[in-house]
Each structure stands twice: as structure tokens, then as C-alpha cells.
Amino acid sequence: MNSPSSISPVPARALVTGARGYIGSRLCALLASRGVRVHALARTPLPIPHCESVYSIDENLFDAATAAVAACEPTAIYHLAAAGMRPGETDDEIIQANITLGAALLSAAGKMPDRPVFVGAASYWQYSPHDDPPNLYAASKAAFVELMRSYARTVACASLVLFDVYGPKDPRPKLIPALLNAARTGTPLLATPGEQVLDWSFIDDAAEAFLAASAALAGAQRGLSVWAASSEFRHTPRHTAAVLEGILATPVPVRWGARAYPPGQIMTPIDTLPRVPGWSARVDLREGLRRVGAA
Predict the structure, then answer these.
(1) The domain spanning residue 125 has which CATH number?
(2) What is the predicted pLDDT for the residue at 87?
(3) Predicted model pTM
(4) What is the pLDDT of residue 157?
(5) In DSSP terms, which residues pair with 38 in a beta bridge?
(6) In degrees to the nearest 10, what's the CA dihedral of 142, 167, 211, 153?
(7) Residue 226 lies in a domain
(8) Strand 53-56 relative to strand 76-79: parallel, antiparallel, unpaired?
(9) Is 60 exceeded by the pLDDT of residue 2?
(10) Is it the case that residue 6 has pLDDT exceeding 70?
(11) How far is 163 from 153, CA to CA, in rounded Å?
(12) Is the pLDDT of residue 3 over 60?
């Protein structure tokens, strides 16, 4: 296990998108625990835990973003909202969430007298070793980074590249929840050959990476940084299943190779991006899986 990262300086006020998501909700809780006044921009104005207020997204994303930023005057904006990871999402939803909403927030930030820093969640899938992006999700994430370069003339912003984030009570259709379900129900998981390498990041470490990114931007007037929240705890799905099986002391039934790899499967994540300044992962895979199994 790596040594704990130091506690990062925190913003006074934060505006978060994706605050109802698995990572976004944990970030909101972390911010609130550090005394930050947290606000959210979401599709519906229903209350969100740890958020003082929730501003609603309307049909005009630029107007909604401008109104929200002007109202709560954030010192940091964390943009985690994304689309393209769930079945049935349309091209329009993907473009709106992954490109337009972020552009609207950056535009609004640039209009503020005291400009907030901006940290946008990115994905290692946008750094595919293949010639073409594997899907529209990856392509839209890559396109947003290029768009950020324009807004970076007036706003200090960072693209925070996330890898395979996991943790307790994860409702997303990801590998570790599927392995846990297989162990608890005895129903075999139909999986790919499981030989790709995954860079596992525990949920608490991922949330801390956002704070470290905004702290690293603090004081900057403009410019774009691209940082990786890479834990360097890299393991194949097969090894991950074996570790979980040992922790649970019960079989984890998996039929490896029952499914083909998805188109454009990345076998080894990018490892050439600089890590977030002042941040390192604290929770290794064994400890993280122990916490998952105990939840």
C-alpha cells in the first residue's frame, strides 16, 4: 500500500455535475466533510445529499450553466456528468453531457470576475492505442479535451483521467459488483477472456484526486493540464477475481471467455500521462476488495 497522500487545500465553494453518480456523490461527501459549501447542477432540482442547493439543467445548457455559476459563485467546478456508459443513451445525450455541458460551464466560468478553476472527468478509454476511438463515448471525451484548450485561454482547467474506479455498494454494471454478485448467488458470470490489464482506483482515492487537481490549479489564471488519477495497482480481471475469492473465502464462479472482448478493447491502459500533483493512491486492490466484501 502506498503512503497516504497529504490533505489537499480545498475550495470555499464548489459546483458539481454528476453529483448523483457513484463518484460524484462521494466527491460531494468529501467536499462537505472538508467544510466546502457544495452546490450541484443536475437534470432535476431534487435535493442531493451534502449539497446546499441544486440548480436545474434546462434546454439551453449555456443559460443554465451561466445562471448556476453566477448564483453560487464557485471557486471550483467539478464536471463529472457523462453519458455513453449505459445502454440506450442516444448520440444527442452523449454529445450534450460529454461536450456541450462542459463547454457551457467553462464559458460561464470565464465570465466571472473571480474565475473558478475547472476540473473535468476524463477516461483512459479516450487514449485508445487503436487508430480510431472505440466508441462515441471515448470520441466525445477526447473531443472535449481539445475544446478545453480554447477556454483555457481564460480559465485554469484540468482534464482528470480516471481509470477503473470501484468501491463498496457500487450500483454500476461493473466487473467487481458482477464478481461479488456471482460469489453471493453462485450464478456463474459470463466474462471475456479476462487477460486485459485494469488500473484499479478505490472510490475514496478517486474523490481525493479531484481535490488534488483543483488544489494544483489554485492561483493559476489560465491554462490546461492533463493529469492521470492512476493508482498503478494494475491487475487482470482473472487476478482480481482470485483475490476476491480469497478474501470472501468462497468460490467466485466465472466462465472466462464466454463473451468476446468489446470492440476496441484496451488491453493495457495508458501509462505515459503525468499523475495528479500531490496525489497518490492509498488503497491497494486487496484492501479495497476487503472493504467491498465487508459492505
Answers:
(1) 3.40.50.720
(2) 79
(3) 0.95
(4) 98
(5) 14
(6) 10
(7) yes
(8) unpaired
(9) no
(10) no
(11) 28
(12) no
